[in-house]
Amino acid sequence: MFLTISTTGTPERPATDLGFLLHKHPEKAQTYPTSHGIAHVFYPEASAEHCTAALLLEVDPVALVRRGKGKGRGGAPDAALAQYVNDRPYAASSLLAVAMSTVFKSALSGTCKAMPERAAAPMPLRIEVPALPARGGAELVRKLFGPLGWSRVDAVAVPLDEQFPEWGDSRYVRLVLEGELRLADALRQLYVLLPVLDDAKHYWVAPDEVDKLLRAGEGWLADHPEQKLITSRYLSRRWGLTRQAMQRLELVRLAESDDLDVESIDNAVDETADTEERPVPLAEQRRAAILAALTAAGASRVLDLGCGQGQLVQALLKDVRFTEIVGVDVSMRALTIASRRLKLDRMGERQAARVKLRQGSLTYTDKQLKGYDAAVLSEVVEHLDLPRLPALEYAVFGVARPRTVLVTTPNVEYNVRWETLPAGHVRHGDHRFEWTRAEFRAWAGEVALRHGYGVEFVPVGPDDPEVGPPTQLAVFTMTAADGPGRTDGTERSDAAEKPDAAEKPDAAEKPRATATANADETETPDKSEKEAKAA
User: Fold this and answer.
1) Cα distance between residue 217 and residue 192, in whole Å
2) Residue 150 CA to chain centroid, in angstroms?
3) Are strands 404-410 and 355-359 parallel, antiparallel or unpaired?
4) Under the phi-then-psi rule, with left for phi > 0, alpha for psi from -120 to 50, and beta for the rest, what region is 424?
């Protein structure tokens, strides 16, 4: 991976001043370790008339793979490229941009104590990048660099094979930029646009990337005609971050047009006064209600049945009162995502001892689930066909028999309040049914009576006086160690009363997603929850 920066000079302003601005002596070859290899800085030529600084980044493919392992991402942007054999060591990408920010940190900030006036003034520059991946081709390269003050933007497509021109061009271009710019501005443009053209990053894009983008884009990004594309690609199409960056860039543009400071126009909100807050997503309200009920029950060992992607397990782990947490789901894909969410591979030994993820169908009895203080079925029951509910009931209330069972499910009466939900539609495509409040209470009451539990009902979300809350929560509490309805799976002998599906359900009847994943962490009509799920 290679980049050169050249300039010309005069006897009064020799070209070797480039060494002062880059804080790298022309007579030395220097090396800098990076997280994925070694960066070399050297000068192929250094005279008063012409000076060239080169940045060579040697990427270690093994380090790249190891650092990406377990994080859902690797060094290469293409799934077809192998882990160890790809274009990352040769094509200018976010790896080179990060190396630039490390090696040329002072130059990027525009500071030079030895020559402050030289750092603040434009100078003749020529920048060459021999292999630049460009998703969008040479035309996009010209669209991105053309409005930035360069007198020459030369982007030539690299053929796939010069011996076989009929194969066409690759997605790489050879880039040459020439013009008079401040060195800091040129480096900042490259820092942003290299990963934008590659349309990939080798690291996770966190919220602080918005600040990095705005710092590097100061003075040019707010008015760039391709601002939206640049912002979206730089932030890896994370729409929440992109929207935040676009709003801040609009403030910058307005401030510049009126010759004002951003702070002077972004003063509509008095932070010392009460202001309107965003509504809390229903999924968060649901988890808060579950945590409150578990705390009130004094539970410390908890089952999350149908744990899905691990949102509730993650919330439980943050509270030290829950000493053992077991997440169960039928979907291995959901459990894999949950494992990544919880960062089990990097979790400390003591914390890891508190949590376990297991694959299992909730319509099968499992003796290993016995003896827990509480079990949670959050947005699970509505994903089963109604004939399968007795099997779930027997497995949880009859065999596992935790002291407390929490069940949440949508209230279908509230659906009329969702403006974006068509009449007669359920909230999630996999819902087999949605109950009214009366139907849910009737089912819960019968289950409690059969198995020796008492049951109370708690509204979750805004409790509409006409249609009730969006989510209904039933809190089952064991009332007796034994009773007319107790079925623990060991003393019961009347096989006729046991649901056939509890022990050996017919695979052909098994629902498509048996209790997948606290499945409805988002309801379709709730936009904020939908975005949370996508993130």
Assistant:
1) 7
2) 36
3) unpaired
4) left
Neighbours of 215 (CB within 10 A): 13
Does position 375 have pLDDT exceeding 80, yes or no? yes
Compute the distance between CA of residue 176 and CA of residue 6 in angstroms, rounded to an integer: 11
Q: What is the largest CA-CA distance in the chain?
A: 103
Short-list 22, 177, 212, 6, CA closest to 98: 212
DSSP state of 266: S
Query: Strand pairing of 50-59 and 404-410?
Result: unpaired
pLDDT greater than 90 at residue 497: no
37 pLDDT tier (thresholds 50, 70, 90) = confident
Bridge partner list, 478: 453
- Percent of the chain clearing pLDDT 70 (strictly above): 80
Q: Which two tokens stand for residue 321?
A: 């009162």
Question: Residues 9-18: what's their mean pLDDT?
Answer: 91
Q: Any idea what the Cα angle at residue 401 is, between residues 399 and 403, rounded to 5°?
A: 175
Q: What predicted TM-score, i.e. pTM, was given to this entire model? A: 0.51
Report the pLDDT averaged over residues 183-210.
Answer: 89
Decide if 212 contacts 188 (C-beta within 8 A). Answer: no
Q: Apex CA 119: angle with CA 117 and CA 124, to 5°?
A: 110
Evaluate whether 522 touches 443 at the Cβ level (below 8 Å). no
Count CB atoms within 10 A of the CB of residue 534. Answer: 10
Burial of 495 (0-12, 13-18, 19+ CB in 10 A): exposed
Q: Is 291 helix (H, G, I), strand (E, B) or coil?
A: helix
Both structure tokens of 224: 């760039």
Residues of 339-375 as b/e, b for ≥16 C-beta within 10 angstroms?
beebebeeeeeeeeebbebeebbbbbbbeebeebbbb
| SS3 state of residue 195 | helix
| N residues, the chain | 535
* Of residues 48, 58, 39, 60, the one with CA closest to residue 19: 48
